[in-house]
Amino acid sequence: MDLVTVLVLTVSCLLLLSLWRQNSGRGKLPPGPTPLPFIGNILQIDVKDVSKSLTNFSKVYGPVFTLYFGTKPSVVLHGYEAVKEALVNLREEFSGRGSFPISERVNRGLGILFSNGMKWREIRRFSIMTLRNFGMGKRSIEDRVQEEAQCLVEELRKSKGAPCDPTFILGCAPCNVICSIIFQKRFDYKDQSFLNLMEKFNENLRLMSTPWIQVCNTFPAIIDHLPGSHNQVLKNFFYVKNYVLEKVKEHEKTLDMANPRDFIDCFLIKMEQEKHNPKSEFTIENLVATVTDMFGAGTETTSTTLRYGLLLLMKHTDVTAKVQEEIERVVGRNRSPCMGDRSHMPYTDAVVHEIQRYIDLIPTNLPHSVTCDVKFRNYLIPKGTTVITSLTSVLYDDKEFPNPEKFDPGHFLDESGNFKKSDYFVPFSTGKRMCAGEGLARMELFLFFTTILQNFNLKPLIDVKDIDTTPITSGFGHVPPSYQACFIPV
Q1: Are 296 and 201 in contact (CB under 8 A)?
Q2: 292: nearest Cα among 368, 214, 206, 178
Q3: C-alpha dihedral over 391, 397, 402, 408, to 10 degrees?
Q4: Where are the bilayer-spanning segments (predicted)?
Q5: How does pLDDT run across 240-256, given as a tens digit for each residue?
Q6: What is the DSSP string of 266-304?
Q7: For the residues of 299-349, what is the DSSP string, one character each?
Q8: Cα distances (Å, whole numbers) of residue 440 to 20, 264, 277, 423, 430
Q9: Is the pTM here over 0.85, yes or no?
Q10: Number of helical H runs and strand E runs in the chain
Q11: More confident position, 166 or 216
């Protein structure tokens, strides 16, 4: 038997084995497009806009279907009813974190975002309790956000109405808020190490939303063996982790067990209390991973929403004028906006919600997985199966939000102009894995937006009709185009 024949037989056997493995479980899983051996459905998915592909598949296979990313199946949930049924009604069963290879290379199952089981439960419970003790959801953290909003205004004033790119300035504000909780420290907006961190966060969101990273997450072997932008993503993550580790070492030298100053101190104290427990989840490695998760999640999502929101407000001048009129009427010029104002500012509240709905920042959510075999709508989803929930399909539901492709604050207002809540508002996800910092993020967005518009008129450098609000990437996140603007003091 010659070499060519051996190779043909070997490849044929591998193809048959791949097909058998993929099809052996399909009888229990929801329907979906037929996967190709080894590569699955990747050629049928637009990696430049995965969310759009999911919508197209849902028109053929319904709200629950299966896609293969490589040889592994993922169950996709599309539409409010399917997402709610899984993440809310069956929250425990769908509370696992699904496969996300790029991040797994960094945190290796530690931290809050990508951990599972008791490790995740213990760290999340501890983190939420500690954040509350340091003012999350209380007046003390609101004071901190208000102070940072004023620092943000002062920094924007330095531009003296000249064109400027607000990317890093808008990143510094939310980052300083989370830094004050984690490190008990805020940075000057010109601090180079601070700007370096902002650059890493910003670059990673952009790179992780590119088609190449979608390919890397589908074929993880690429990450370890091929060159590409994924290496820059990993390099940026490790830069941030090393920065956090330095801060942890500084805290260890000055720790007062009786007087914790911040989140790191509280974690170190918990480590000391559990030092005789060989199964303790409270380790230096987990501390660094947890703080890195909080640092990134508490910075980049909020700053990107601010940046995208200001671009939308420059384009929709009528909306901006109404917000500023409401700020003038309710807050005036002589004091800072506060959360107590929100209930008296329904239009502004609606605008902030509409910005988050419209930009649809993380369109396919972070991946979930099922923690046990789950019967779901007459299908059987095996334990450990990755579940993708389309947040786009909820935020852009045309029955809840008429003309969802249009930026319209009226989506969150009733006939009388009062603010209207919606169960379809899920930019922070929902269920057990919803964003732990949702309360802080919503506070920051309201106070930062209102404080900026209280103090400045926004002036674009181009004609309003030429402003393009289309995201430059639509993968993991929707990343807004870069722009310059003039902040004209009111």
Answers
A1: yes
A2: 178
A3: 0
A4: none
A5: 999 999 999 999 999 98
A6: HHHHHHHHTTT-TT-S--HHHHHHHHHHHHHHTTHHHHH
A7: THHHHHHHHHHHHHHHH-HHHHHHHHHHHHHHT-SSS---GGGGGG-HHHH
A8: 48, 19, 33, 19, 16
A9: yes
A10: 18, 11
A11: 166
